[in-house]
Amino acid sequence: MKNILIRFACLLLTGITTSCESILQEKPHSLIVPTEFFNSEDEIRQALNGVYSYLSTTNLYRQEMTNLGDVVTDMAVSRDDLQLQYSYREHGPADKDLVAYWANLYAAVNTANTAIRGISSSTVRQEIKDPSLAEARFLRGLYYFILTNFWGDVPFWDEELVDFQVIAQLPRTPVKEVYAKIIEDLIFAENNLPVSYSIGVKNRATKGSAQALLARVYLFDQNWENAVGAAQRLIDSGTYQLSANYGDVFLESNERSNKEIIFTTEFKRLVLGTGRIGQYSPRFDREGVADFTGWGSFVPSKLLISYLDDNDLRKPQLIMTEWKGQQFSRTYWGSKFHDIGVAAGQSGKDFIILRYAEALLSLAEAENELNGPTTLAYDAINQVRARAGLPLLSGLSKDTFREALMKERGIELVGEGFRRWDLNRWGILVNAVRTVDTEDNPWAAENVKDFHQLCRIPAAELLKNPNLTQNPGYE
Amino acid sequence: MRITFQQIVMAALFVSLSHASDLHAQELLNRRVTLSVTHANVETVLDMIARQTHARFVYSHEVIRAGRPVSITVKESRLEQVLETLLQPLGVNYTVTTRGTILLKRTSGEAHSLEIPDATPLVPVDRTLTGKVTDEKGEPLPGVSIVIKGTQKGTVADFNGNYNLQLPDGQQIVVFSFVGYLSEELTLTPDRTRLDIALKVDEKALEEVVVVGYGTQKKASLTGAVANINTDKLPTSSALRVDQMLQGQASGVLVTSSTGAPGAAATIRIRGNNSITAGSEPLFVVDGIIGGGNLNTLNPEDIASIDILKDVSSTGIYGSRGSNGVILITTKRGSEGKSTVNFSMQYGLQKIPRLIEMLNGMEYAHLLNETVVAQGRPPIFDDPDSFGEGTNWQKEITRTAPLKSANLSFSGGNKVRYYISGNYFDQQGIILNSGIKRYQFRVNLDNNLSDKLRIGTSINLGHSNTNNNTTQLAGLAGSALATPPVIPVFNERGEYAFRNPHPDAAADFNNPVAAALVPTNYSKANTLLANFFVEYEPVSGLKLKSSFGTDVSFNKSYSYTPGSLPAQRWAGNGGQASLSQTQGFTWQNENTASYFRRLNENHEFDILGGVTYQQGTSENMSAGARNFATDANTFHNLSTGDPSTRTISSAYSSWNMLSLLGRLNYTFKNRYLLTLVSRYDGSSRLGNNNKFAFFPSAALAWIVSEEDFLKSQNLLSFMKVRTSFGKSGNQAVDIYQTLSTYATTPFIASDNPAIALIPSRLENRNLRWETLTQFDAGLEFGILNNRIKVEADFYHSLTRDLLLNAEIPSQTGFSSMLQNIGKVSNTGFELTIHTINLKKKHFEWETNFNIATNRNEVIHLGDKSEIITHIYNYGQQPAGILRVGHPIGSFFGATTEGLWRSQEEIDRIGTMPSAWPGMRRYKDLNGNGLFEDGIDYAILGNGNPKFFGGLGNTIRYKGFDIYLFFQGTYGNKLFNGWAAYNGSSNPVANQFKDAQDRWTPDNPDSTIPRAGGNNQPEERTPSDVWIFDGSHLRLRTFSLQYAIPLKNASQSAIKRLTVNLTGNNLWLLSSYKKGYDPEVNTFGSNSMLRGYDYAAYPNNRSFTIGVNMGL
Predict the structure, then answer these.
(1) A10 part of contact set with chain B, CB < 8 Å
(2) Is B99's pLDDT higher than 70?
(3) How far is it, in rounded angstroms, from Cα A443 to Cα A437?
(4) In chain B, whose CA is at the least distance from the CA of A98?
(5) Which residue has the higher pLDDT, B1020 or A232?
(6) Is the separation of the CB atoms in B430 and B401 below 8 Å?
(7) Biggest distance spanned by C-alpha atoms of chain A
(8) Which of A214, A390, B158, B1071 is most exposed, with minimal Cβ within 10 Å?
(9) Mean pLDDT in residue range B944-956
(10) In chain B, positions 777-816, which contact chain A (CB-CB < 8 Å)?
(11) What is the pTM of this model?
(12) Choice between A270 and A100, residue whose per-residue pLDDT is larger
């Protein structure tokens, strides 16, 4: 009866005989609805930019990533008034920050899934579709990889799942299975991404990006053979090479032409500046050096300083004790982290997420684990050491090679956001943090426990999804 | 020039009027009728006669008791004769109007017999009787019929109530009759030639009619709770906007001005807050246009009546938009036969009623010295006494502001009736450089194309220009209350002075006077509100009506902050400009059919059905730029701003609604009433799974006084009990809220900003209306011939499916989602009493009193038990909360126990170990031994009054009218949002005068913190110290009006002349001294944030003189 009445009313008022629902459909001209998007290459580009955009958010590489990735480890510690926060009372920052990291990473996953779904059903040509899907899947793999490093087993869902009620109730998926999915995405990406884009585009995933990330993931998965394979493919492609000089890699002027850089996320001064540089630069309020307006939130550990003998060419890039003749009250980071004269939160320096030196070290490590210190392994690590002006390694046992490699990764890759993950996979986080001097942090060495390898699952998420379980030690 | 233009319009109208020919009464009465009916009711017989003769009968069913059975047989008889035969035995009289309508009414006075003449006898003319007919107030009554008794001989009074009647020789009886008035029969002596007469209103026949949705209804037979505001009784210039006219006038309708700024909207709550996030403002229906109109471009003087639908059986006809109550505004229309021109002018002066007492220059200087010395720094001023009074910034930014208004209206007509008006209104604000101007023009027309077909239109064109206030009253830097009195307005170089002497104060802020005078900030609104209708009545009682209405608006805002403004200059910023414009277009088509039928004495039906469609679109665009090299172009040349600072945005939205509506009113035996109402609404805003919703309601009433057992007494003149139950809704879902959407996010690609899209909202196809279910029970009675009328209502409502942002697991990619989860209830009681205290010939005194109470309670918040609704912006601590079991909009904060009197006390109690003597002592509420900021907080009251109401007195003495109107609230609390910095004893801002009584070791019992406790978080803790009692009683309006007696008024150009003197807001009883006015709502219509005072623009006190002329 109601329907007849409505149909009658519709007919009377609008002359539409089909369905009233149709005249009550919303037509949002000033909004973009994902289900009606992805109709052209440009639309796909904008949606993919959205998937990339999470990399440059504050909770990832714009600022906070290094807090959890490098602080507090054997290489980097927090400044004195932040020490309590970074002293393993909690794991890293407080719970409210973890909520934000968790939410941000899953927002990224959702954005990737929405894009993959949209691109898959798009009518654009297959030549556009495949590389676009590959970019989205590369990023989804990266985001899940970061999630597993923070929390271990995490809820996993991909574009196949559309019902948010189901997604909301998903339990945690074992990290091994998540790795399998990540690897699946990255292999697709490797097979479908272009070798390069136009000159200077470093913030879009390439075949090399997929290979470099794949090498890292296999390494973390202790799948040595595939790690060697992925790294080898990257090296053999000849697309990338070590920069002659360590410092050149991190110069803003070089960041789009340097052949060592594989994948970055871009920042631009005053438009989308990064606060990471501010966190690593000398404290303006304490040191009063006009060239630096930083907060000095994080500083090199005493261990790192002791590692850097005067022969190491990386020393001025990594640490600094004075500026233009003015002595600092303590040791700060060197030029790798500088952006002279720029306000603390406004640096335009890109964040290098993947670079060639890491791939070499990954190859060396995987090869050593697989076959012992072979020529291949020595050659890879020695390329990095040679550039640093250090003596080449030789004649090591498998174990001593591993130790040298751990130290080399610590120095070479410090502040790039994954030292703690390395320590975790080697199972030496607790021992490494116990090397932290009490002057660097009075509590960390004492507080750190095995369970700190993983972060606390945010309490609010456990309440909202009863199928989630807490990581051990945080219950 | 304006008048000339209107004269042209008038002339054009009169030309068209002259074509309307009058039907000659006698011709009508000569028409022939053939009839043979037995035992049919009077109404049916009249219908049959009407069909044969094309006569039109107008009568009240009750008055002539049209359900009575009659029998009549006539053949080819003259209508006149038939009417006499039919009506005379029934005790019913008739008169024929100039337009050929036959008015039927009960024969007045004692029964008398009319002779039935066979033919009209020729009466020899002997003399002429002249005179004037007026109502009891002396207003002329045009159209009164004057008939020589026993004949058909008579005349009709002209527009001015004057008449000439030729009387035959000898003593005659003359009958004066007019619809709605008691007929008068007077026996005239043979020598009488002059007779002026005042007709009395027939209280019974003149039944109060109220406008209900899609129709009108007699007040006596209403089954719902409807408040009618008779705007005639309100003095002009007592309210500048329509919403202000409602204040205190109707029980259960709480009107609060949010700020005193000219043109600012008041917030209205009818029967409490029914929603949390979706808005609780009532629906306005202006001349049938739903949600139409900008109240700033509507002229209060055009309004004929305001009807407020309160219970669900009356709001239910508006379905999904009715749950917050409905305000129906009906504008004046021309009425037949009466041609009037009305001109009025007002001039007023407004001022700030009082200033908040702050420290003067000398007192402030001493406090600042004491503060820095306590902090171990050298004193700032060598000679604090030299500052004397210093600068009173409140005085500097306020002024006595003029108010001007002029109004001209024409109304009248015959077949075409018109009401045309124009209005100019100019209100300057009491703060420098603020105010509003309005220009408005209205045309309302009605035309009877035939007896069955009527067309009409209402058109309102308006323009308003609001000059927005740009200075702040309170705030930490640059506001009138914070700026230290030791700073002069101008420094010795003649520039605006600005530097705060406190060493910890922010360096750059605006001098309040500069902030008021230097920027340019205004907004213009242009509106067209128009409605056209055609009504066809194919058979008596059946009306088909179709209307087409539109609401068009074009609003634009202009803002320029010059580089010369101190804060801009010292920050090295150039000028900053922005422009934004919004265009709105809404149209609606409504088609209704109504049928009225009285079957017999016992059954009466009034049925309404309709279909409506409404569509609205809104477009906006804004642009801005900064760092203008020159201030010369302001916002008129945005392209000269720094290219890198340009901003631009635009948006578009549209919505539509399709509805079916129906209403049945059934009356049994004139005393048992039933109303069934339903509306079926479909809306584009809702999710695909819930596009349509059904809102039914039912009401019953019993007019007890119609029962025989109450007819024999004289005390109770009227009594009705009524009850209603049903549902209405709140159109809560914002446009496009159910769709998943992409939003842009910052992203850099190849060194340039690029568009990047990320999902910003989860699709929710299940979103529904918020639904209110309400029960209402009412009692109305009148005693002593309705000298005392009382109306009382009890109601209880429950709103379900309230929209709240529910938290969802973040693993979905979203942290929250809008869902229908909340519940809230309102329970209340309303009482209205109207009394005629005195009614003498020259002295009348009437009183209207209303009071209401409402209890609001949050019942359910989904999976949460509380939600923080407000973070105090100074201290970044929670200051407002929604908590289950408490009303919406509860204040939240710490509980104080005075100050810490000594270090010994701090050490002994130990709840605030780092406190110092003279600091506020907050209670450790959770008993864990420590006061924790943000945690040891409790609910500190809310902004909803326990009782509120109004009391109006109208006194008429000869030509004088006095109107006294009081309005007040009791039991509401206020959160004073600036007391934290003006009452902390921290001289970074100037302090309240009571800082003079601050804590010192010699004054340990003080409750005012000591100097020197600089900038600690505890100064900014929201606490009960900042909660004040908002109860108040206000003499809202005092008005004195005098009608100047005019000789020969009917001949002179000026027919009527009154002068008036009105005072608004003359007296206020309130304990709230740390704010300007207890009636304040800084957050406007937001239900969660009521009673917050963040130094809103103060309400003014005004005196207005005016003159009102009838031409």
Answers:
(1) yes
(2) no
(3) 9
(4) B810
(5) A232
(6) yes
(7) 93
(8) B1071
(9) 94
(10) 807-815
(11) 0.80
(12) A100
B774, containing H or E segment: strand B770-783
Q: For A306-318, how does the pLDDT look when each residue is reduced to its tens digit (9 = 90+)?
A: 999 889 999 999 9
Q: How many CB atoms lie within 10 A of CB B1054?
A: 12
How far lies B394's CA from each of B436, B1070, B1097, in Å? Answer: 21, 21, 12
A125-139, A325-339, B122-136 — most confident range: A125-139
In the DSSP assignment, the letter for residue B688 is G
CB contact under 8 A, B812 and A167: yes
Angle at B425 between CA B1055 and CA B954, to 5 degrees: 55
A48: closest chain B residue by CA: B756
B18 pLDDT more than 60 = no
Cβ distance A34 to B745 less than 8 Å, yes or no, reads: no
Q: How far A189 CA sits from the closest chain B CA (Å)?
A: 20
Split at pLDDT 50, 70, 90, the class of B805 is confident
Q: How far is A62 from chain B (nearest CA, A)?
A: 11
Interface membership of B755 toward A (CB under 8 Å): yes
Q: The tokens of B46 are what?
A: 């009249």
Core vs surface per residue A382-398: b (16+ CB within 10 A) or e: bbbbebbebeebeebee
Query: Within the 388-417 window of chain A, which residues sit less than 8 Å (CB to CB) from chain B?
Result: none
Partnered with residue B435 across adjacent β-strands are: B428, B467
Nearest alpha-carbon partner for B428 in B572, B285, B240: B240
Closest partner residue to A56 (CB to CB) among B685, B738, B747 is B747
Question: How far, CA to CA in Å, does B109 sit from each of B91, B93, B152?
Answer: 10, 12, 19
Q: Do B660 and A169 touch (CB under 8 A)?
A: no
> Cα–Cα distance between A14 and B658 in angstroms, integer?
10
Task: Please indicate whether, in this complex, the C-beta atoms of A46 and B755 are within 8 angstroms of each other.
Answer: yes
| CA distance linking residue B627 with residue B641, whole number of Å | 6
The Cα B191–Cα B1091 span in angstroms is 72
A88-91: which pairs have CB atoms within 8 A and are 24 or more residues apart? A88/A433, A88/A443, A88/A444, A88/A447, A88/A448, A88/A449, A88/A452, A89/A443, A89/A447, A90/A456, A91/A452, A91/A454, A91/A455, A91/A456
Yes or no: say if A347 and A278 are a contact pair by the CB < 8 Å rule.
yes
Query: For B691, which of A13, A21, A464 is closest by C-beta distance?
Result: A21
Instruction: Kindly state whether B682 is in contact with chain A, defined as any CB-CB distance less than 8 angstroms.
Output: yes
Tokens matching residue A4: 């007849």
Min distance B211 CA to chain A CA atoms (Å): 26
Residue B713's identity, in one-letter code, is Q
Q: Is A330 exposed, middle or buried (0-12, 13-18, 19+ CB in 10 A)?
A: middle
Contact B736 A107 (CB under 8 A): no
Query: How deeply is B3 buried, as exposed, middle or buried, from its count of CB atoms within 10 A (0-12, 13-18, 19+)?
Result: exposed
User: Cβ B808–A464 below 8 Å, yes or no?
Assistant: yes
Per residue in B442-479, pLDDT tens? Answer: 999 999 898 899 999 999 999 999 999 999 888 777 88
Report the SS3 class of residue B555.
Answer: strand
Write the burial class of residue B889 (CB in 10 Å: 0-12 exposed, 13-18 middle, 19+ buried): buried
Cβ atoms of B1093 and B977 within 8 Å: the answer is yes
**Residue B331, CA distances (Å) to B184, B231, B267, B418 in order:** 33, 10, 22, 12
CA atoms within 13 A on the CB side of B756: 22
| Beta carbons of A103 and B815 less than 8 Å apart | yes
With cut-offs at 50, 70 and 90, classify the pLDDT of residue B49: confident
Helix (H, G, I), strand (E, B) or coil at A263: strand
Within 30-49 of A, beta carbons closer than 8 Å to B belong to 30-35, 37, 46-47, 49
A 73-102 → B contacts, CB under 8 A: 99, 102
Query: Measured between alpha carbons, how far is A392 from B779 in angstroms, rounded to an integer?
Result: 101
